Amino acid sequence: MIKICDSALEYLRKNNYIIILKIINTDLC
Hints:
The chain has one domain (about 1-29). The protein has helices at about 5-15, 15-25. The two termini are about 15 Å apart. The protein has 2 helices and no strands. It is mainly alpha-helical.
């Protein structure tokens, strides 16, 4: 599963996190 820090989650929420997660598909922390 993809793990996201709170700070990273807030940032991704404001920047179409779904699309970004699909591109990264990796742990952000």
